[in-house]
Amino acid sequence: MAGTAAERIVIENCAIATVDAHDTEYAPGHVVVAGNVIESVGAGAAPEGLAHVVRRIDGSGHLATPGLVNTHHHFYQWLTRGLAQDSSLFDWLVALYPTWARIDEEMVHAAARASLAMMARGGVTTAMDHHYVFPRGAGDLLGAEIRAARETGVRFTAARGSMDRGVSDGGLPPDFAVETLEGALTATEAAIDAHHDASFGSMLHIAVAPCSPFSVSTDLLREGALLARRKGVRLHTHGSETVEEEAFCHELFGMGPTDYFESTGWLGEDVWMAHCVHMRDSDIAAFARTGTGVAHCPSSNARLAAGIARVPDLLAAGAPVGLGVDGTASNESGELHTELRNALLVNRLGSHREKALTVRQALRLGTFGGAQVLGRAAETGSLEPGKLADLVLWKLDGIGHSSIADPVAALVLGAAAPVTLSLVNGRAVVEDGRLTTVDEDAIARSARDQARRLAETAAAS
To answer: Are 309 and 377 in contact (CB under 8 A)?
Structure first.
C-alpha cells in the first residue's frame, strides 16, 4: 500500500486520460505510483522531493491510460483458431464441440498462457475467462488457467462455467463433456472456496457461470444464482447473442431470454452477460433497472454474423457495459485494444450512425466500463489516487500515429499502438512491447504443440 516508505515509480511528460467521472485529461501530466497504488495524478511535472523513487520514466510521446479490462473470453479456444471460418454461431458450435470435448489440463494451460500473453502485450491488466467445458478425466482445467494467470502477472476473474445439457438432452456438446447438476454446483462451490479472494487488490476472483440458456438446465441457472449470492461472488453467462437463441427461449420457456433470466434470478448488479446483441427496448430497460452488465464483443459478433449490439442504447439507459475479446476461435487476434476501435466502428454501422460512440466512450468501455462489469470499479478502471496501479503507457510518436493530434483518437482510431509499459499492481508486466514475466517464444511453441495434439486426439476419437 501507499505510504512514506513505499517505493515509488514516477511517470512524467506524457498525455494522460484518467477516465475518471469527469474524463479528466492532462497534456502533459504525471502519475506517481507508490507500492501497488496510484499516489497522485496531475498536470505538469511530479511533485518535488519524493522519497524512495526507484524509477523515473520520461513519457514524452506517450499516452497513459488505465489498464484495459477484459470482460469475456474462452482461453481454451486458442487451440482451434481459424476453423469454421464461414459459420454462424450454432453451426460453429456444432463444428467445434467435438474437438473442444477432447481438451485436457496440459492443453488448457498452454491455451491460457497464450491467450493471457496476447492480451497483456496489448495493454490488458485485468483478464477474465469463462471456462465451461469439463470433459471427464481431463484434469484440473480451472486450476490450469489460474496458474497461467499467476505466471503472467495479470489480475484475473475466473468464471467457473458449466453445462448439464448434452446431446441426449437436446444440447450441442457431447454428453461426456457436460456435468450433472449436482456435480457442476459442487465443483463451482469448491472453486470459490479454494480460490476466491475478495480483499482489496485481489489478483483472483471466481464467478459462477453456467454457459448459456441452450446448454444448461433451468435448475442449474436457478441453483447457480443462489450459490453465487450465498458465497458473495458475481454471476456470468451468455445472453441474447443470436436470433436463434430468442426463438429457442420462446419455444422452450414461453418467453424471451431477458424475461427467462429474470425468472431464474439472473438479473442484478452482481450479474453480467456476454454479447446481448438482440435486445428489445424492454430488455434494455430491465438491464438498466437492475444494474445488469454487458460484455460487448464486437469482433466476435461480426465474425459469427450475430449482429450489432445496441451499445449506445444500453449506455444511454444506464446499463454497465465493458468490452470482451471472446474466445479466439471467433476473434483470432485475441487482443482487446483492437476492440476499442472495432466497438466504435461497428456501432456506427447501427441506427445511431456517427453519433453512436465517441473515441472517449470507446476507451471508457475498455477500462472503467469493464471494471464496473467485473465489480472492481472501486479498485481499478481509472487513474485516480488510491486506486490500484494498473496502467498502460502507449507509444504514440511513431509513424502510425504521427499526424493525429488528439492522443485518445490516436489510440482508438489509429493503428494498434505499441505498449511501452504496462503495470499491474505496480509491477511491470510489459516493457517495450515484450512481456517481462514469461517467455513469449516458449508460449508460442507450447500452444502450437498442444493445438496439434488436440487436433490429432479429436481426429482419432
So the answer is: no
Closest CA to 169 of 181, 159, 161: 181
How far is residue 252 from each of residues 139, 170, 193, 263, measured CA to CA in Å?
Answer: 34, 11, 34, 14
Q: Cα–Cα distance between 450 and 340 in angstroms, integer?
A: 30
Closest residue by Cα to residue 408 from 371, 373, 357, 346: 357
Supply the DSSP symbol for 437.
S
- Mean pLDDT (whole number) for 370-384: 98
The pTM (predicted TM-score) of the whole model is 0.97
Kindly state the helix (H) or strand (E) to which residue 39 belongs, with its residue range.
strand 37-43
Residue 246: per-residue pLDDT:
86
Residue 172 has pLDDT above 90, yes or no: no
* Three cell numbers, residue 205: 476472483
Query: Which three cell numbers, joined as nine digits, stand for 397?
Result: 510518436
Cβ burial of 51 (10 Å; 0-12, 13-18, 19+) is exposed
Nearest Cα neighbor of 418 from 122, 59, 12 is: 122
- Percentage of the residues of the chain whose pLDDT score is greater than 90: 93
Q: How far is CA 430 from CA 110, 311, 338, in A?
A: 20, 31, 18
Cα gap 369→70, rounded to integer Å? 10
In order, the DSSP letters of 112-127 are HHHHHHHHHHTTEEEE
Cα angle: 103, vertex 106, 109; to 5 degrees:
95
Contact criterion met (CB below 8 Å) for 124 and 156: no
CA atoms within 13 A on the CB side of 61: 15
- Listing DSSP states for 379-419 in one string gives TSSS--TTSB--EEEEE--SGGGTT--SHHHHHHHSSPPPE
Going by DSSP bridges, is the β-strand pair 434-435/321-323 parallel, antiparallel, or unpaired?
unpaired
Q: What are phi and psi for residue 5, nearest 5 degrees?
A: -95, -5
* Among 167, 168, 148, residue whose Cα is nearest residue 158: 148
Q: By C-alpha distance, which of 315, 317, 308 is closest to 345? A: 308
Angle between helices 440-460 and 89-100 (to 10 degrees): 90
Count CB-CB contacts under 10 A for residue 354.
7
Distance of CA 365 to the CA centre of its chain: 11
Take residue 331 and report the three cell numbers written for it: 476473434
On the CB side of 180, CA atoms within 13 Å amount to: 3
